[in-house]
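seq as requested:
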Amino acid sequence: MFNSIYVCKNFLKKLGLIGLFSLVSLPTLAEDSTFYVRLNENPFASPFYIFSDEAGGDAVSVSLVKGSTYTFIRTDSGHPFNIGDAWKQANPDVVMTSNGTGGEVGGVASISGNEQLTLTIPENFNSSTLSYYCYAHSTMLAPLSVVESVTVDSWDFDGNGQADALTDGLLLLRYAFGLRDESLTDGVIATDASLTASEVANVMSQSAGITDIDADGNLDALTDGLLLLRYLFDMTGDSLIDAAVSEAASRISSLEIAQYMASYMPGLAGQSLNQSTALLVPMASGEEFTTLFTQSYNGRYGAVAETEDTAVDAMPAGDAVEASADASASESFTTTYTLEEGVDEHDFVKYDGSHLFIAPSYSLYDDCCFIFEPMVMVDDAIEEGEEPVVADEPMYPIIPEIRTLKILATDSTAASTQQVAQIVIEDNKTIEGLYTTENQLVSIDTSGWWGMYGDVFMDPYTWRNQTVGLDVYDISEIPDNSVTDDLHQPDLLWEFELEGGFVTSRKKGDIVYLIARHTPSIPGYYDYPAVDQVENNQSALEEVTSEDLLPKAYINNEPVDFLNSTDCLMINEDHDASTTGYGYPTMTLLVAVNVAEQAIENSVCYLESTNGVYVSQESIYFIQQEGWGDNSKSFIHKFDLDADLAYTGSGEVQGHLTGRGQLDFRINEHNGYVRVVTSEWTGNNEDAQDHRLTVLQQSTDSYNLEQVSVLPNSASPDEIGKPNEALYGVRFFGNKLYLVTFETIDPLYVIDLTNHQNPEVAGVLEVPGFSDFLHPVNENLLLGLGQIEGKVKLELFNVSPANEPYSVEEIIIGDGLDGGWSHSPAQFNRNAFQYQQVDQSTDRFSVPVSISYSTADQGYVNENQLHLFRIDNKDQADSATLDNVGFMSGQSRGWWNNDRQRSFFHGESIFYVNGETVFSSTWDEVATSTP
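struct tokens:
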């Protein structure tokens, strides 16, 4: 936060405004009906008494509003205080009472020494002043202004019909700094204003109902004043709110602050946005919900048919958000690698600096970053040596009778671990991921299993008869070392269970955001009925209720109401962008769970096909794909990442978020802009795919994400990627976008987003191989992780000359080994990657690798390894270096769980988790091994 007037002066000086008024260090005036009264230092000198909004506080000016009641409290003794028309003269048109003991005027005793006087001014009061005085001395007499009551419902403080930065914005800033009278209004009232200076001052004195912009309970110049000034100067996103939101604020995101201020713009004052014009609308009643949902349901399952035509519906689990490359710089240990600072992602391993928590899981691949799509959409050949990642049929593991969540104490000095506790997993459920909070472990479990891809995953039938649970355990008593043979058993504090299949989750602060999907089973309804069952189905649909369709939920095994039919949204059939086949038989559920308070904050339900989820620091986005080929498009629906989960708008882009790798990297929110990279199938064998960047921005006066720009465009028509090149690695970083396309060679594109209205391809670099995963080291260096000829390739790029990026150094893991091939789970799952800033010049990171090769003495080797790397001179990009420090062996690797590799750094220690086994070492020890 700006914390001094000096900072504010610099801000205004940059805007060329500092000459418009002189800043005075006065307290913020709290708009309150209570004033504290004390004698002036010289009680016989004007103003005789000092008024303040707190006992002993700084002086404030007082204007009394007609129709209001005020209480005056004396905080010192002597010179008894009273109010009237003149000295010792009561005003019969006002109502006054007091508990004073001083001389009475008109039956009202004067006050002194903690006594108080209450004054009510009628709305029809016909005078513009009242007097305050000392009962004992006629010379101690001064006026109080009495002003008309006004309704302040817009930022147009001077009444010219507009809200302007150099008038209305400065009026609020000056008022919040405590300026009054001429110093408040001089030079900042519009020439076409309808109000006089005194009337403007009156408006400002009654503006408290709208001026607490960040909702922290106070009007403050360096927060609320600056926010309005920036907004009226058309600042958006981070530039709107940066260092201008109170730590105590409850309205904190740039979107909600911008929308709040937009609602008080002249012409919109007092109005709420009309959601009937939005692309998504809530169900008006349980009856409407039931009717529309059963129509979708019957449309999917009611056709009389021998075979099923599988619909295309898919869900990625993950978000594509911008991360700081130095996210762990302030910590001595690393945590889960995420893409959005402050937004945690569940993983099967968590580290809190003293304990490792390792959950058993039997997923073929963790759910970090996939978009699931039908086999017919996969046009990228699997490189030689890679293992398949898509299957038409589920593969089920052999699950042991008893499974446990292991808890290991770590010693970062000795680089050692010891199991000290465990949690027995009941009901044979799969643990999908963990979170840690202060003294709490949060476990997400499901009755389903994530070894399903392709058509199996996308069929709405898949989401029937599943449950997802969230359990909170007490870990405050876990020992740091084992003192007995009995492992500690953390207590289960709270459990929440929901009907639905788990999709993904995120955690921000104390709230875990669960995303699940639910396809209800309707009693008596036959899927794909025979002809003689159609009438039976119709009867079943007529009898079903919203309570039958909505998922059930339980807290500590007791049923709870967590979702109403009116919490569900659906495409508005009257909207211009509405599709003819709106509605879908699977509900996507978004639930905000406060794990600290152990309560459900809110829930929403989305009744359309869902193909993607993206979570930024401020919002949750659902992606809905429509059509195929050159008619393909994607809707993007936006919800607040807050306890209220409010729907804030929708936008539309051409193409789909499809292709290879961590596809959730392809959408990003930055400074109020939503940037989306899509691909579409052209039907042209010579150039089968087109790739496109679209920039959207949230409208401030409607529920729209409006298109700002697109690339390619008429001014920059060159395609992104050569003919038939698929899109691999994508990474947004501030005002840059990095793209990797591939068919036979790897072009790295650098796209400049400094001007979101006119994005440009700044430079292109062609190198062999490709990168699936991109990590920004800083503004000048980019790290790529991918493949070349069946082996893992790491490459460091210098992107500081954006128009001429070049390769600094490359490392190929397994190069030179006989028959060797290698791949890394970090290519497809960001949680497997680990990164740490050591200092301003040096970074460390690790990449897990599954490698196979032949040796004369060992024969064919099949092994998991953790490779450790170091980047030096990163602050001098021209001389930066990339070095493979060494590797740790994870010994043999399983055929199905190679993705279950994680690593954490703590000081000089390294903890490498391979499956449920932990290997530990130090950086010095690893440096002696041979890569």
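Confidence is low (pLDDT under 50) at residues 1-31, 307-330, 363-398.
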